[in-house]
Design a protein that fits this description.
19 helices; globular; 6-stranded mixed beta sheet; 29 strands; 26% helix; single chain; alpha/beta
Length: 738
């Protein structure tokens, strides 16, 4: 049956191309031919009008193909955490479909905190299957912008503060997505590190920071992940919009890295026709750009890369060389996706995807503090559990901007706890505070109404009463996806918790010392009450299976193994971007901290973080042996291998993330105290011991010399450091580069 369907499709395409079954198949339809030949054959058959149509949108999320030649439309979809609900052709409102409810996967901060490359692959494969089933051929994600400040409202969509970690996690994600014949679209290229003035701010950053911190994950996506598309950023760099930035797109992306894929604008990120023609952009998307009024009919025909471009060609002001290059890249994308008859069909909203999401969520949850072994909850000795906090009942798959979803279902933390604990203990809930009482977000109605008319004093009194006689208090709070929390288009106003949560937590700790704070967020928060609260868990935005995953960790069915992918500072002044007074920027923002981002800043200035990069506890314990090197000296073309034994010294199975950092003992340029250059997640049964090895070459020792515009590995002495976090150092070994 499938063979007959494919035959019919081919015959239809032959007919639309002006051929019949007896004639030779056109090269562009022959999937046995190399893609380059197919592209050139299709290109020469297209009119200028068809080419112009192909390089800009025709609706909110689609661009035209060439119907006459049987080349399908391109359909994009948000986002990195799940397949967005269908919207109307030219409006953001939902289209009202009943079969577009997706599986919501954990936010990318949770994925990166698994430090598990296999799970990154599973994430990509699963979300790619959902996109493919919905007939989307470009997934607008993942995001790999670096976590520069804990106030960036969009940090939850990204993979943390370290370029090496982000690079290693993004590649398997991309390969997983693209195994389905769906293009990943890595975003936002580049330097998109604030939401305030995001469309206009001009980022000023030195070349060392650009190449060492902000570009490596994008480079890995291109050169290791072979990503098929990249999205430009809203902001400016060197005075040019990043969506048509000569230095970023032509010189670096295509010139230095050899990117062959499609550059897509962020929605409304194009601002100039000539720059869009010449500076590396291929496809323009957005909403009523070019000063057009809201909802103008056929607005897309007036885009910068639409009529203005075709008029320039018609008048002879410009040729078609650049146009042909853009269309070549788009055709290549089509042949890799919609024109690949052998790509799988995908699947959508399945139990398999929900289970994958739950596993990622469970491994991403980070146990930050566990004084007196308050966790896991001992159900044999616990009769009453007080659950307090709005985030215990609030849906988190909605809101936050373009990553908002219509999930097939979402298990809230309170639901997950009740389901897992059942009759083993009484669970009593009190809201405690009101954050966002919105119960309907763009057509998605919350299961529990969040409307609240009681005053705060009454909510506080209820929470204290519930907490006072409980065996354990679970305060489930943190941030949400409302404006000025974790939300696209807005940055946070402060590091502290909003809605009076800090005060409430301290008051609860006075009536019950057995309290656990579960931080639902994509960002670090201040914890002025940290010494009053024995248990702290980083719970992220965990998607469809959030409540089940969280309950499994809290009661000990799952041993936590997540590690932080960014530093939790005690206060804003402990972060480089804020210590030097440049967040957020106005018309421009200067990255005064340079390469010293995250733990690099804390190390340089000997600042003790609230929680360190790479930190995460377990319900078991691990003992590290002494790290050894297979040689003491390496030549420029050599590799060197470090080995360390790790043993599970506790009573239950668990996983540990072994981290390798490198120190350049003496350098001609300032360098971080240490930098992550390897990590491995190792599962160990109780009493089991394994040897973990890391092999590096001189690239792990190199820095970017902005004077030479090249990577340099200087001869001299180095240290290899093994740690359980950036501050929990286990052992070191010296070696040198000749």
């Amino acid at each position: 049956m499938l063979k007959n369907v494919k035959t019919i499709v081919v015959l239809l395409l032959l007919s639309s191309a002006g051929m019949n079954a007896q004639n030779k198949v056109p090269v562009y339809l022959d999937d046995k031919k190399p893609i380059e030949e197919r592209v050139e054959d299709a290109l020469k058959r297209m009119t200028t009008e068809e080419k112009i149509a192909m390089i800009h949108a025709q609706s909110k999320f689609s661009s035209p193909g060439v119907k006459r030649l049987g080349i399908p439309e391109n359909w994009m979809t948000d986002g990195p955490h799940g397949i967005r609900t269908e919207v109307k052709w030219d409006e953001w409102d939902q289209a009202g479909w009943t079969n577009d409810s997706c599986i919501a996967f954990p936010a990318l901060t949770a994925l990166s905190s698994t430090w598990n490359k296999e799970l990154a692959s599973l994430y990509g494969k699963s979300i790619g299957e959902e996109a493919r089933y919905r007939n989307k051929n470009v997934l607008l994600g993942p995001g790999v912008n670096i976590y520069r400040s804990p106030l960036n409202g969009r940090n939850f969509e990204y993979m943390g503060e370290d370029p090496f970690l982000a690079s290693k996690m993004v590649v398997p994600y991309i390969k997983g997505v693209q195994s389905n014949g769906v293009a990943a679209c890595v975003k936002h290229f580049a330097l998109n590190n604030q939401e305030t003035n995001r469309n206009s701010v001009d980022v000023i950053v030195d070349d060392r920071a650009l190449y060492e911190i902000y570009l490596p994950a994008f480079k890995a996506a291109v050169q290791e992940g072979d990503v098929w598309s990249i999205m430009g950023a809203y902001n400016k760099y060197k005075g040019q919009q990043c969506c048509h930035n000569e230095y970023l797109l032509n010189d670096i992306l295509r010139g230095e890295w050899g990117f062959k894929g499609v550059v897509v604008s962020d929605w409304g990120g194009v601002n100039d026709t000539k720059q869009a023609i010449h500076n590396g952009l291929d496809m323009e998307f957005g909403s009523w750009t070019n000063g057009l009024s809201w909802g103008t009919s056929n607005a897309y025909d007036n885009y910068y890369l639409a009529k203005p471009y075709s008029e320039m060609i018609r008048k002879g002001e410009i040729g078609t060389k650049e146009l042909d290059e853009k269309v070549r890249r788009i055709l290549r994308l089509s042949f890799l996706t919609t024109m690949d008859r052998n790509r799988p069909f995908g699947s959508f909203g399945t139990e398999e995807h929900a289970i994958a999401g739950r596993k990622i969520a469970e491994e991403g949850i980070v146990l930050l503090q566990n004084n007196n072994n308050i966790l896991p909850i001992n159900l044999s000795k616990t009769k009453k559990i007080a659950v307090i906090g709005e985030n215990a009942i609030k849906m988190m798959t909605v809101g936050g901007g373009s990553s908002s979803l219509k999930a097939r279902y979402e298990i809230t933390p309170l639901e997950g706890l009740k389901k897992r604990i059942g009759n083993q203990a009484e669970i009593v809930y009190a809201r405690g505070y009101v954050g966002d009482p919105t119960s309907n977000y763009n057509g998605v109605v919350a299961k529990v109404s969040l409307e609240e008319k009681r005053p705060q004093a009454e909510l506080t009194a209820e929470a204290l009463k519930v907490a006072k006689d409980a065996d354990i208090v679970l305060f489930i709070g943190g941030l949400n996806k409302s404006p000025n929390q974790d939300d696209e288009g807005h940055d946070r106003k402060e590091l502290n918790l909003s809605y009076g949560q800090d005060k409430l937590i301290s008051e609860l700790a006075k009536v019950n010392k057995n309290i656990v704070f579960v931080n639902i967020s994509g960002n670090a928060v201040a914890m002025p009450w940290i010494k009053e609260v024995p248990g702290i868990v980083q719970g992220w935005f965990l998607g469809t299976e959030a409540g089940n995953a969280l309950a499994n960790v809290l009661v000990g069915d799952v041993n936590p193994s997540g590690k932080l992918s960014f530093t939790f500072p005690v206060k804003l002044a402990d972060n480089g971007a804020h210590a030097l007074g440049e967040f957020p920027g106005g018309d421009s923002v200067k990255y005064n901290e340079g390469i010293f981002v995250g733990y690099r800043w804390a190390d340089k200035n000997k600042i003790k973080p609230l929680f360190s990069f790479g930190h995460g506890l377990s319900y078991t314990t691990f003992a590290y042996g002494k790290v050894t090197a297979d040689k003491k000296q390496m030549n420029a073309g050599d590799k060197i291998t470090f080995s360390v034994n790790v043993k599970n010294t506790g009573s239950r199975e668990g996983s540990e993330v072994v981290q390798l950092y490198i120190t350049d003992v003496k350098s001609s340029l300032p360098r971080p105290v240490k930098e992550l250059k390897g990590f491995e997640k190792v599962a160990l049964k109780a009493g089991e011991e394994k040897t973990v090895t890391f092999t590096i070459d001189k690239t792990a020792l190199s820095f970017f010399d902005d004077k030479k515009h090249d990577w340099v590995a200087e001869p001299g002495d180095f240290e290899a450091i093994i740690g359980a976090s950036s501050t929990d150092i286990k052992s070191k070994v010296n070696f040198s580069l000749k």
